[in-house]
Specification:
Keywords: Cell membrane, Membrane, Transmembrane, Transmembrane helix, Transport. This protein has helices spanning 2-29, 35-41, 46-60, 67-80, 82-102, 106-110, 116-128, 139-160, 170-182, 208-220, 228-241, 243-261, 271-286. By secondary structure, it is mainly alpha-helical. Among the domains are: 81-182, no CATH class; 208-286, no CATH class.
Length: 287
């Protein structure tokens, strides 16, 4: 009887250890670049491959490359604002499809390198628009701007490669600046919010709670998301891809938030400056 109980205990312990190994192996398969997924998707339908490429493009915004992280980021965006998430989804798909039609390098397309600029353009068009949510006319410039990013990226790459410089978000910056210059607050079809004159922002406080909340919120601002819950989900998506990348994102966010809360710059520093600090920390990690 005692031997039977001991054997059963050993079997239960072995089963628990096997279950832990299976769970750990499953988690490891979901981290990093998930290159095994590309091999699995090679013989699948083009639509399914396009979804994976688009999700990789979503994560390229934060210098990651994981489709599961991209799905979590999209879920966070739909949680925060379905209209903004729809614009972002449309942007990444249009730019990726444009790259496929233009015959861009297949490795770059499958890696999402032609999708993130289109997503950023469409997201920022929605943020700057003063026409409100579900303004369907905005889909037209979002699609055109996202597609144009691929043309700019293709044209700028040979030029910048001479100086060993990446194209990165240069196409996005060009398109969004041209869009804002061509439209305005009084545009009948594509109005956007007027630029806030310097000195009119309310000074920020220095409370500890505000600083702690500002750190994850600054991570969400990379995707123009200002809600705490979705921002934490975005941070979780970064953590899934790389804990080190998530640590650098938090470091850049903390530095930008603390600088923004200082009295000397509190009236001029906003989410953009914090987002730039995060981006610089991530770039330092990649370098």
């Amino acid at each position: 009887m005692w031997m039977d109980t001991k054997t059963e205990a050993k079997e239960a312990s072995g089963n628990r250890a096997s279950l832990r190994r299976c769970v750990l192996s499953g988690l490891l398969l979901c981290t990093g670049d998930m290159e095994h997924l590309d091999k699995y998707m090679q013989e699948k339908l083009f639509v399914m491959q396009l979804v994976v490429w688009g999700l990789r493009g979503v994560t390229r915004v934060i210098l990651a490359n994981n489709p599961l992280s991209g799905a979590l980021i999209l879920a966070a965006l739909y949680w925060a604002s379905p209209w903004q998430a729809l614009l972002g989804t449309l942007g990444v798909l249009v730019s990726t499809l444009t790259a496929v039609i233009m015959g861009q390098d297949s490795a770059e397309v499958s890696g999402g390198l032609h999708g993130f600029n289109g997503m950023l353009v469409s997201l920022l068009m929605g943020v700057f628009s003063s026409a409100g949510d579900w303004y369907w006319w905005l889909l037209l410039p979002a699609c055109l701007g996202s597609a144009t990013c691929v043309f700019l990226s293709s044209g700028l790459s040979p030029v910048l490669e001479r100086w060993d410089l990446p194209v990165a978000v240069f196409p996005f910056n060009i398109i969004i600046v041209l869009y804002l210059l061509c439209t305005g607050p009084d545009n009948p079809y594509f109005p956007h919010h007027p630029t806030t004159p310097p000195g009119l922002l309310e000074p920020n406080g220095t409370e500890l709670i505000a600083v702690m909340l500002g750190i994850p919120l600054s991570v969400g601002q990379i995707f123009a998301c200002g809600a705490l819950g979705p921002s934490l989900l975005i941070l979780g998506a970064v953590l899934l891809y790389s804990p080190l990348l998530a640590a650098h994102a938090l470091l850049g966010s903390a530095v930008g938030t603390l600088v923004g809360k200082s009295p000397s710059v509190s009236a001029a520093c906003g989410p953009l400056q914090k987002t730039q600090a995060i981006s610089q920390a991530l770039i330092l990690l990649i370098l």
